[in-house]
Specification:
Layout lengths: L7 H7 L3 H14 L2 H11 L10 H7 L4 H5 L6 H37 L14
Helix pairs in contact: 1-6, 2-6
Length: 127
Amino acid sequence: MVCGGFACSKNALCALNVVYMTDVINASWWVMSNKTRDELERSFDCCGLFNLTTLYQQDYAFCTAICKSRSSTCQMCGEKFLKHSDEALKILGGVGLFFSFTEILGVWLAMRFRNQKDPRANPSAFL
């Protein structure tokens, strides 16, 4: 991927597509301790990660989220994580573009005003 100009940070963030984010979330989910998974399931009100393997049934059986007591099915945590990470990456892309433009403005201002003479200096004096 060629990255040039102002769109570099936006392109880099857009390259994190759903498949890549799914892989990252899936890999990190199985590394977490059971306590951490339970806390995430309770705070996001979801059960399990993705319905991809037989481990999902085991994960769903031990779920302690509130949604499980309210209804027979809960939303999967993976879907909520993807939605949350998508929103965070959009905000992060906007912040990155903001700082890119301010940096370009700073470079332009430095080039514009760097060779100006000091108006208080003696005009007949040699630099």
